[in-house]
Amino acid sequence: MESTRRKLIDLLSRYPDEFVSGQVLSEQLNITRSAIWKHMKELEKDGYVIQSVPRKGYRILKNPDKLSANTIQWGLSTNWLGSRVIFEKTTDSTQVIAHHLGREGAQHGTVVVADEQVKGRGRLNRTWYSKKGDGIWMSLILRPEVEPQQAPQLTLLSAVAIVEALEEITDLAFYIKWPNDIYVHDHKIAGILTEMQAEQDQINYIVQGIGLNVNQNREDFNMISDNEPTSLKIETGMAWNRRPLIQVILQQIERLYERYLKEGFLPIKTMWEERAYRLGQPIMVSSKNQNWQGIFKGIDQDGALIVTDQKGRDHVLYSAEINWRSGGHE
Ligand code: BTX
Questions:
Q1: pLDDT-based confidence at 326, cuts 50/70/90?
Q2: CA of 257 to the centre of ligand 1 (A)
Q3: Chosen CATH of 282-323 out of 3.10.150.10, 1.20.1250.20, 2.30.30.100, 3.10.310.10
Q4: pLDDT exceeds cutoff 90 at 227
Q5: What gap in Å lies between CA 313 and CA 295, rounded to an integer?
Q6: What pLDDT is attached to residue 1?
Q7: Residue 278 is assigned to a ligand binding site
Q8: Closest ligand 1 atom, CA of 129?
Q9: Closest Cα to atom 13 of ligand 1
Q10: Options 3.40.50.10490, 3.40.50.970, 3.40.50.2300, 1.10.10.10; which CATH number does 2-62 get?
Q11: What does the record give as the reaction this protein catalyses (predicted)?
Q12: Kind of pairing between the strands at 314-317 and 305-308
């Protein structure tokens, strides 16, 4: 049932301005014309507006805004990412659900999406504000066959993929602040939280959380004082439908992930550095209780930060606190 409806959407979406006849649909899907009609009624329940004209056929007039496991999957052109989607109207955190599923053996590529999170979290248990209906709050379960120390590479990989997805659908330029934040016009629009369950030399699973602000207004961020977040709506002046956005993001992540498995981290590293915030510029580092100024040179093979100090020596930093904006002067 599910996959028939998915194929139906795929067929109709291929010819957006044309009618596709019931005859063609029934031949392609190998079901009767009355079964096609029943599927159309089900799609309408999920928010599709479908025009049906006798002797011409069917066409989609409007895709649904509504998020559900079905609407996320229909029209999603991935092979494995999102092959299972769990959708919750409201939850503490999609990370919690995904960890639970991961422990129970959920398949690689399972995606958990929520309309609202009441305990959304960032790194170091910071709060991630996840207002109802206004953003993309989702967690991916991944089971990569790589060494545990390579896991941070997957944060960088998804950051590049999200930037590519956002640049595909808007005219804005996005960049990545090491290691996990996406910025536009100096404001944070998205964050990535990669958590891992591993044994010494083997990853059991990774839960990668992605939070993207979509339709918030400026006043929705009044409670955040430290980094003036932004949303797609604030930046573009228009509201966005989250469903196609989720699909483009998943498609880009899957594409880059497959490239990573074939070609390794190097192409991802290059793409990441092309989009890196303040690359080649002075930044302040506070590590080992010392503050010093250096030049942000790039990232290494593991995704760690390379900063050159004033004597020209390179330092590899994994979790140092970086004062990005100051360059030592603020
Ligand atoms: P982070 O630790 O880099 O960023 C958290 C910080 O960002 C907060 O301390 C706050 O200052 C600021 N902040 C909080 N909410 C927002 C927001 N909506 N937009 C911009 N800035 C904000 C980044 O952590 C990783 C966030 C991952 C969120 C996803 S959502 C789906 C999944 N579920 C879950 O609980 N977390 C992940």
A1: low
A2: 23
A3: 2.30.30.100
A4: no
A5: 10
A6: 61
A7: no
A8: 15
A9: 128
A10: 1.10.10.10
A11: biotin + L-lysyl-[protein] + ATP = N(6)-biotinyl-L-lysyl-[protein] + AMP + diphosphate + H(+)
A12: antiparallel
CA distance 82 to 88: 15
Give the model confidence (pLDDT) of 57-112 as tens digits.
999 988 877 899 988 998 898 999 999 999 999 999 999 999 999 999 999 999 99
For 137, residues 6+ apart whose C-beta sits below 8 A from its C-beta are 94, 113, 114, 115, 116, 117, 120, 130, 209, 210, 211
Q: What is the mean pLDDT of the chain?
A: 92
Residue with CA closest to ligand 1 atom 32: 209
CA of 81 to the centre of ligand 1 (A): 23
Residue 215, pLDDT > 70, answer: yes
Asked if 10 and 16 touch (Cβ cutoff 8 Å), the reply is no
> Which pair of structure tokens corresponds to residue 19?
């009618």
Report the CATH architecture of 69-274: 2-Layer Sandwich (3.30)
Q: Give the C-alpha separation, 52 to 44, whole Å.
A: 12
One-letter amino acid for residue 120 of the chain? G
pLDDT of 114 strictly over 80: yes
Q: Where are the domains of the chain?
A: 2-62, 69-274, 282-323
Say what the pLDDT of residue 79 is.
Answer: 96
Ligand 1, residues at Cβ distance < 6 Å? 93-95, 117, 120-123, 126-130, 137-139, 180-181, 188, 191-193, 209-211, 213, 224, 226-227, 229
